[in-house]
Amino acid sequence: MMLRERRVIWWGVAVAVLAISPPPARAGITVLGTVTSKGYTFTNFDDFPDGTTPLGSNANGISNSGQVADTTFDLMGNATFFNFTGNPLQKQATPLNTGTGQTVFAVNSSGNVVGGNGTTAFYLPNGGSLQAITTPAGAINAFGINDKGNIVGQFTSGNNTPGFILPGFNSNSFTTINQPVNVTSDVINAQGVNNNGLVVGFYLGNDGQVHGFTANAPQVPSIITATAVNDPVIPANPMEPGATFVFSQILGINDNGLAVGYFGDSTMSQHGFFYNTKTGAYTFLDDPSARFHNGVEITQITGITNSGEISGFYTDANGGFHSFVAVAVPEPASMVLMGIGLAGTLAVAVRRRKH
Fold first, then answer.
1. Domain boundaries in the chain?
2. Beta partners for 22?
3. What is the pLDDT of residue 32?
4. pLDDT value at residue 29
5. 3-state SS assignment for residue 210
6. What is the pLDDT at residue 27?
7. Which of 34, 37, 110, 251 is 20 to 30 Å from 314 at the Cα level?
8. 3-state DSSP: the chain helix, strand, coil percent, rounded to 5?
9. Would you say 28 and 93 are in contact if contact means Cβ atoms under 8 Å apart?
10. Closest CA relative to residue 116, chosen from 154, 78, 150
């Protein structure tokens, strides 16, 4: 089961941290099909660096310009990663020089990307060279970057792994995000930040599971406390009778305060959601192409744009992972739009890790 560190599974494999390797000779997006559900049209796709190798695909985030940050990986789990940015609706992808074992997690409208491998976080400016993020010291993953260049992620501090907010790559000061009040463990995954400075992510709770949080970036870098988000009350699913809530992760947020992520249930399945930070309301949405494999079905919504386009990935009947982007269908009767209080806009919805 894929439980994001943020989203890719094989963090345990020893890899060279920032060893630059050439990108694949060519990159192209293969559209697997389109399907509409609950007011959204999903375009499912894979990136193939060559025409033959069977790969899994994770769309880990999306910028306000519609570019996705995408990682493909060898299904045998041998830490062979290929990173891309691109526009799936235009079937266009650009390979990235991110080094062995690295994963790109986010891209902004300028084409700057961030990522990491659980040991070292990186920043890759559009058209530039890969650079390690050294502020804060011990930065292990950068999960989000907004259009202002603010970066969020996770770093090590003694036995703790708090979150961080970096005003810009060249900044020499940062904000530490610590665990919510009354939470013992300081394990914080800051996943996304919008242009208003609202940060979302997830923390390790006293129950040993992860749960969503929000935080507001201060004007002057300092130390702040995350605000715990109420867990979703998950809907009944006839395909998973008796399933109960286990954990949730908030992975992205747009400037309207609409966040996205997914929850895990007692059957080990995962399902996507929207979370309205202004009202506290949840709305649930899966890729309709997701299928059960060995009793487990997965959809993760990983990013959302200001216009409402979402990104994410799902599993097929063979357990393979595939990426998607989805846009709202302009239907007045769309229950999803009504449910999240955004009727009259094209707001849609749409990241991963366990500690």
1. 38-339
2. none
3. 92
4. 85
5. strand
6. 55
7. 110
8. 0, 45, 55
9. yes
10. 154
